[in-house]
Amino acid sequence: FSSVTTFRYLVAAASVQCLWSLVVAILDAYAIVVKRFFRTARAVIILALGDWVTGTLIFSAACGSAAITTLLSNDFGACSVNPCGSFMNATAMAFLSWLARAPAFIGNLWTAVHRIQKS
């Protein structure tokens, strides 16, 4: 993966996604331990924005990886030199990650809009 810039971007985007998910999980666990409700309008907007940013990063990285994989395998026929199977698997996992992220973004956005309308 290190020879193709798009896959380096994919790894970076996936790392940001993992860090964001870890931070949100830690904050949710902390909220449960201290028995506080952190779903204020401001917090939900921050969560929605964070989900949107990480979702955009993952989607753009997946699209770039798909383009490079198609270019290498179909256009150049360079699968004998490059691990096209690994490239295809990484691209598929990136799209699945984005599909898993999309409902969280939509749910947080819906909650943020609802909270803002109630205020």
Automatic annotation (TrEMBL):
It comes from the Eukaryota. It is a multi-pass membrane protein. The chain crosses the membrane at residues 6-33, 45-72, 92-113. Keywords: Cell membrane, Membrane, Transmembrane, Transmembrane helix. The keyword Transmembrane applies. Residues 1-100 form the Casparian strip membrane protein domain. It is found in: Cell membrane. Its main location: membrane. InterPro entries: CASP_dom, CASPL-5. It holds the Pfam family CASP_dom. One of its GO terms (cellular component) is plasma membrane. The keyword Lipid biosynthesis does not apply. Belongs to the Casparian strip membrane proteins (CASP) family. Homodimer and heterodimers. This is CASP-like protein.
